[in-house]
């Protein structure tokens, strides 16, 4: 931020000007008439050099306070209300937040910097998004385990507000980490589901979130970027992460 102040040049008396007489004539009543041009106390203070300095100092104080306020606001992630979509590009989103005050919902407000892609690692039949919603509502009561969204081939469950920390990345509260600053998305891999369609729906959700939080595709992360873990496993084993990012970019271009 650059702010230019133009201060008026101080007036100088021309050297040729007549010196002011030391004494001025008294009036008939014996009082001196007011000196012409002399400032009366309390008037036009900001036109004096001291006044201008005070004004400048006040402006600087206000600016510094405003900048500090904006930093605090951004740090606390309160520059944007968390998104709570009903649907994303035609895929229904069910909001069923974990209750406040349990292990899996520490209630720590943060700034969203990443969308973190996971796979559930659970191939059992029936392990779809609804089943994982039921699972996490039980598990998060007592365990430090949670994430924000689960996606299958037909729907999405939203388990936590985006602006709150969840325990999905295994990196505690590392600065700029997956837990502290990432929205965790779990993609279902159940054998009776359609994995490719689930990945496609996850790409739609990822694009929606990046668009909403004004982030680019370089803010898409894998769980394995934060700790040594092969997650999302199927995507990584197939070398398909770049294709996923491209798919997200394709949906972003439509927004
Ligand atoms: Zn994971």
UniProtKB/TrEMBL annotation:
One of its GO terms (biological process) is sporulation resulting in formation of a cellular spore. The keyword Hydrolase applies. Residues 100-248 form the N-acetylmuramoyl-L-alanine amidase domain. It comes from the Bacteria. CDD domains: PGRP. Its EC number is 3.5.1.28. Residues 1-48 are annotated as: Disordered. Coiled coil: none annotated. It catalyses: Hydrolyzes the link between N-acetylmuramoyl residues and L-amino acid residues in certain cell-wall glycopeptides. The keyword Cell inner membrane does not apply. One of its GO terms (molecular function) is N-acetylmuramoyl-L-alanine amidase activity. InterPro entries: Amidase/PGRP_sf, Amidase_domain, NAMLAA_amidase_2. Pfam families: Amidase_2. Keywords: Cell wall biogenesis/degradation, Competence, Hydrolase, Sporulation. Belongs to the N-acetylmuramoyl-L-alanine amidase 2 family. This is N-acetylmuramoyl-L-alanine amidase. It comes from Neobittarella massiliensis (ex Bilen et al. 2018). The lineage of its organism: Bacteria, Bacillati, Bacillota, Clostridia, Eubacteriales.
């Amino acid at each position: 931020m650059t702010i230019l102040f133009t201060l008026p040049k101080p007036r100088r008396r021309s050297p040729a000007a007549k010196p002011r007489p030391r004494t001025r004539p008294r009036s008939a009543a014996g009082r001196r008439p007011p000196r012409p041009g002399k400032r009366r106390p309390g008037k036009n203070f900001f036109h004096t050099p001291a006044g201008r300095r005070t004004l400048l100092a006040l402006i600087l104080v206000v600016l510094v306070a405003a900048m500090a306020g904006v930093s605090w606001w951004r740090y606390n992630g309160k520059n944007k209300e968390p998104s709570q979509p009903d649907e994303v590009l035609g895929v229904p989103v069910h909001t069923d937040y974990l209750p406040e005050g349990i292990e899996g919902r520490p209630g720590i407000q943060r700034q969203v910097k990443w969308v973190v892609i996971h796979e559930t690692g659970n191939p059992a039949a029936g392990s779809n998004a609804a089943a994982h919603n039921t699972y996490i509502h039980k598990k998060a009561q007592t365990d430090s385990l949670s994430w924000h969204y689960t996606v299958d081939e037909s729907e999405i469950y939203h388990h936590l507000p985006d602006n709150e920390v969840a325990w999905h990345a295994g990196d505690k509260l590392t600065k700029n980490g997956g837990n502290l600053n990432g929205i965790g998305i779990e993609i279902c891999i159940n054998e009776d589901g359609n994995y490719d369609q689930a990945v496609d729906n996850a790409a739609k959700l990822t694009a929606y979130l990046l668009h909403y939080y004004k982030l680019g595709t370089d803010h898409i992360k894998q769980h394995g970027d934060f700790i040594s873990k092969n997650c999302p496993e199927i995507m990584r084993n197939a070398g398909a992460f770049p294709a996923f990012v491209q798919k997200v970019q394709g949906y972003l271009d439509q927004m």
